[in-house]
Structures are given as structure tokens and as C-alpha cells.
Amino acid sequence: MTLRAATLASNIRFGLRKARDVIETTLHTLETHDPAYGCVTRLLSERALRAADTIDARIADGEPVGPLAGVPFGVKDLFDVEGIVTTAGSTVLRENAPAVQDAAVVRRLVAAGAIPVATLNMDEFAYGFATENAHYGTTRNPRDPERLAGGSSGGSAAAVAAGMLPLTLGSDTNGSIRVPASLCGVWGLRPTQGRLPLQGVYPFAASFDTIGPFAGTVGDLKLGFEAMDGKARGEAPDVGALRVARLDGWFGRDLAPGLVDGLDRIMAFFSSTKTVELPEVARARAAAFIITASEGGNLHLPRLRHRAMEYDPATRDRLMAGALLPASPIIQAHRLRNWFRTHMHEVFRDHDILIAPSTVGPAPRIDQPMITVGGKSVSARANLGLFTQPLTLAGFPILAAPLAPDAGGAGGAEAGLPLGVQIIAAPGQEQALFAVGAALERAGVLGYPVRGATEG
User: Fold this and answer.
1) pLDDT band for position 1 (cuts 50, 70, 90)
2) Which CATH superfamily is domain 5-229 in?
3) Domains of the chain: which residue ranges?
4) Are 115 and 51 in contact (CB under 8 A)?
5) Burial readout 359-393 (b: 16 or more C-beta within 10 A, e: otherwise)
6) What Cα–Cα distance (Å) separates residue 431 from each residue in 232, 344, 351?
7) CB 183 within 8 A of CB 147
8) Which residues are catalytic?
9) Of 94, 133, 216, 436, which has the fewest Cβ atoms less than 10 A away?
10) How far apart are the C-alpha atoms of 348 and 242, rounded to whole Å?
């Protein structure tokens, strides 16, 4: 199994490993193992090796190197990386000028000692839940390569699940961190909207765009987020004193049996039987669709007028439809968003943590990308965000967490496949999410083993 980010950094700082050795091993692993999964779009070999040598030299000179010293990480292909064209999963941008500097959060990770080693595959312009990319190929799920990794941050989630990288970056507009984390069985975080800077990140829908990390453990996720956040840490709450409830109604339908069992175990851990049913969830999801489509369409309309045929056909059609939306439904969608967000704040007067599923079940097959909703077989690509899209409206922080293999019947009907949950807190309460995740990980309720692509 790949060593944890925290362990790698500690070993490097104390001279038990050389950063160059770690980076060389990581690059070899990506070159050797990634063709089976399709996570990587570009390796950053020269830069990574130079950075590793710098860290080793600083350690030899007794200089501080940061909490993530020598830890390799990958970035979704919409984060600026100095000297490289940011393609956002498309060939439409390939003639753009290279980025003049790293994205803000990439700079923060580098300042903490982490080393970027690769850019990672995604749905074109982050518009999708599958990471089926007409230009760069489909990212396969390391838990079963015949299944979808989810999206749009599929390359980031799959690289962690495959044990190729201990830490990666993704973006979440309507669930693009939460869905692939669930399907691949890794940890992911959608922070409070606006908490992390979006400078140097190619936009999709500005009203919802959020960025965050993926990792194989909640501890590594916390370490990565704190480096990205760059702020003093808040106090971790007493987990036993938290008021926890489960979202029901819309969030309790069509669930795989193993997912129901896993949610029950989480609630039993907190000795809670409380449930909350949010109002107008179907309309909230529709509002998220409308706002996303209209903003994405408006952003791309000038280019679509002249270069539409260079887009992935699936992306092009949805962007064009969004650009044609009239003003009235867009205005109504924003009104509903404000109302829904206000209601969520009211819910958190009586609760500290809400628990919900991330998807209805395990990853769909690539050749049969369908899920069952309301007794009907429907498109997975259009419906994998069933439980993530409505919560997007509120902008609250959400931890995407994998059920432990024995916490949900090892995937319910699909034995051996991961299932994931959303753990939701009030704005700014990321430390509460990490505390809850860590407690449930220690109890064996959350946490899915990472595949052993590297020896670490």
C-alpha cells in the first residue's frame, strides 16, 4: 500500500527517505500503472525532480521544509501549472499561452513542501459526472476497471484509489468531488464555498465552483486542506457532544441495501435516530441544473459561435442549451437558491452535522452507464448527482467519506465495490467534519483500503 502523505513527509523530514527517491518511485508508478486507468494527462517529471532535489538540499542544510515535505500530488487539469497550458480537459484551449504561475492553492501546497507530479483527467470543462472525455479518454475505476470512476474529478479520485498518489486536487460545482470520491472509495472535501481561492482555476459555473482535496485517509485529507487553506486551525469539537441527524425523504430513496446499512451504523455510532427532511429538494436540484447550465453556456458562448465542433459533443450540446435559456427560469432558480440556503441555516440551529448518501449505489459499468431511480433505469451521467446537486445550493462544507467494506455489506448487491456518504456541517466548520470523519474511521465505520500500486 502507498504510504500516507503524513508518513511520507515525516520520513523525508527525518532523513528516512529522500524526496528524490519518493518522486522517482511515484513517476515510475504513474508511467507503469496509469495506462490501466487513464488518470494522467501530463507528467511534470522535470519540475518534480528539481523540487525534490531542492527539498533534499534544504533538509541537509537544516532548513525548514514544511508539513508536506516531498509529498507528491496531482492536480485536476483545470488548475494552472506554471509553464503549461491549462486545457480544462479540452483541446479547444490547447493554443492558449502557458500559465505564468501556479494556481493559488497549488502555490500554497508547494509552499508546504508538496510536489506536483501530474495533471489529471476530467470531464471536458468539468461538465459531467463520468470522466468520459472525447479528447483524453475515459478514466476507469481502480476498484473495477470496467466501471466508471465518476466525475468530473475522476482522474483525481481514481489516482488516489489506485494507490498512485497520496493527495490530489479536484473541483466541485454540483458534486464533482463527492461523486467520484464515493464511486472510487476515497475521501474528498467540498469546503465552504468561497473559503479556498479560485485564482488560476478554470471556471465552470461561478455561483457554485469550489475546489478541494482527495486523499486515502481523513488525516491526509485534513493535512492537505490545511495547507491549501493557509489559515490558523479551528478547535476540533467534542464529537460526542455533536447533534447529528440523517437526511431523509429525497435522500432516503432508491438506496442500495449496503448503503442503508452503512448509514444506520453511522447513526448508531452517535446514538441518534433523528432525521431531517428538507423541503423542495427536487426544485433545488432543478435550480442547480439551471444555474449551472446558464452560467456555463454564457461563459462558452463566444467560443461556441466559432469553434463549436471542437468540443466534446456531449459537452457542446449542454453548453449550447444552457446559453439559450431565457432569463425568467434563471432568476427563479436564484431566488429558490437563496430561500433554500436560508432554510439550511435554520436546520443547523438544531443540528451540528447532517448525514446523507453521496450516490444511490456503487459505480455503474462503463458499457451500461445506468442507475435505478424510482424503479426506472436512467442515465448515470445525468443522475449520479441526485444527492449532491441539491446541497450545492447552500454552499455548506461537505466531507465525502467512503463506508468501510464491512460497514455497508461491502457494497450491497455489488460485492466489493465502495459506497460513499456526505457529512455536512455549517459554513466554516470543516474541523467538525474532520473530527467526525476521524472518529468514524477509528471505529471502523468509514474508510476504504487504497489499492497497493506503490510500495511507498
Assistant:
1) very low
2) Amidase signature (AS) domain (3.90.1300.10)
3) 5-229, 244-442
4) yes
5) bbbbbbebeebebebeeeeeebbbbbbbbbbbbbb
6) 11, 19, 16
7) yes
8) 76, 152, 176
9) 94
10) 11
Which top CATH class is 244-442?
alpha beta
pLDDT, one tens digit per residue, over 182-239 is 999 999 999 999 999 999 999 999 999 999 999 999 999 999 999 999 987 777 899 9
Q: How far apart are the first and last CA of the chain?
A: 7
pTM: 0.96
Radius of gyration of the chain (CA): 21
- Cα–Cα distance measured from residue 87 to residue 99, given in angstroms and rounded to the nearest whole number: 10
SS3 string, the chain, reads CCCCHHHHHHHHHCCCCCHHHHHHHHHHHHHHHHHHCCCEEEECHHHHHHHHHHHHHHHHCCCCCCCCCCCEEEEECCECCCCCCCCCCCCCCCCCCCCCCCCHHHHHHHHCCCEEEEEECCCHHHCCCCCEECCCEECEECCEEEEECCCCCHHHHHHHHCCCCCEEEEEECCCCCHHHHHHHCCEEEECCCCCCCCCCECCCCCCCCEEEEEECCHHHHHHHHHHHHCCCCCCCCCHHHCCEEEECHHHHCCCCHHHHHHHHHHHHHCCCCCEECCCCHHHHHHHHHHHHHHHHHHHHHHHHHHHHHHCCHHHHHHHHHHHCCCHHHHHHHHHHHHHHHHHHHHHCCCCCEEEEECCCCCCCECCCCEEEECCEEEEHHHHCCCCCHHHHCCCCCEEEEEECCCCCCCCCCCCCCCCEEEEECCCCCHHHHHHHHHHHHHCCCECCCCCCCCCC
